[in-house]
């Protein structure tokens, strides 16, 4: 991945050729070579050299096959190993059978790899248990198939007749270190085959176990000075409802070369998921998008930008990104909002009913006291018990006393003064728009949130704000326009048919009460084939980085309802 995504075709082609050649090197071990050439080699080379060359060719072919996927990902280390293995393949092709064609093909692909050296710039990502287990599983499958067809095609060299069933039995016996009569009297070619099967098995097991047992060594720690620099940039250039959330501790930063702009992202697997657009001077935004794209390419990460504004879509598309609308933000125009008139009759009546019953609101200024935080936590805990999946993160804040202590908080109290609902106010810095983060309530009277939102609107109007951002409605307005893409139509299907599970429509209906305008928000990602991976990264990041814990909490709550 370089500055734009279409440039990855040459590494893909090289990876395909290396993988295909690796398979060819393995298959060629089963073929009988020209008798005259073999006779000449036996006359001039020791038997040990012939056997080692045969094993070396199979070993190199297996390595080339395994390395092909890492070459697709443009790994520098994979390129180095592949170059060495192609050199081994070329030499052993000559030593074991004077196979000039095979040696020539190996040399040609080696030359291609050397010419494309500058394309393989991705650093190796940290090994993981999941990757190691996948290698072990792949080793079992590959060695079984290799043994199955090897025994089947070379049966005469074991002085037996093997059908596929018997070949399978012999493979399992050999791979489990069991003994059968056929394995006890192989000729030389059969012995070479058994040695190669053992070598492939050992290589896969050793490599897989190394990946499983090696600890994760990647740790990205954000220095205090980096957080301070990000806060300064947000203060100067922040202009969205997400700007303040980029300063929360679950984000790491990439700064532009000038140091005046940054992107805030979370690394989910090998997806670098950015929250919103880059923040900084407008003229620098296209450049930092290109810089961050190249930075991700060097680290073998897939970059994606979540909840971006329409403003910079041309800059993303210039870097090869795809764009998918993921929902709409509800924005209330404070200069025109009023409770008067027939249109707001039901909202006005709901607010008046709450007031008659003794419900009041209060704006609590920071720093919040321990007692206030305790009451807010009671509200939050009860609200979380009703939610499927528990506390969210990344594109939302979470209940953290140290975070909330420094926020303005609007609360709703009952007639006895108990806090029943709250929302914390967060700044948008260079945009005169009010917005909130957490929005939580206890079980109780319908109308609590209506009252709180109306009071928030009144507060922001008094402060001279132009708009009030009610937040994103996921999938709202997606796939409804004529000519919508397949991806958007799929999202629309999800919106229509999974509403009972996720309450998409209920959230939109609630926000419609306040007569907002709807502004589109987008997901920007590298390639359509990566969309499922990116979508999973979004869900994982919003679940706090642990999809398993999120799913478990969701299932427990589902069973209890």
TrEMBL record:
TM helices/strands, residue ranges: 12-32, 52-72, 79-98, 131-154, 192-213
InterPro entries named in the record: Acyl_CoA_acyltransferase, LPG_synthase_C, PG_lysyltransferase
Chief site of localization: membrane
GO biological process: phospholipid homeostasis
One cellular component term from this protein's GO annotations in UniProt: plasma membrane
Any one Gene Ontology molecular-function term assigned to this protein's record: aminoacyltransferase activity
This protein's UniProt keywords: Cell membrane, Membrane, Transferase, Transmembrane, Transmembrane helix
Location(s) in or outside the cell: Cell membrane
Membrane-topology annotation of the record: Multi-pass membrane protein
Name of the protein in question: Phosphatidylglycerol lysyltransferase
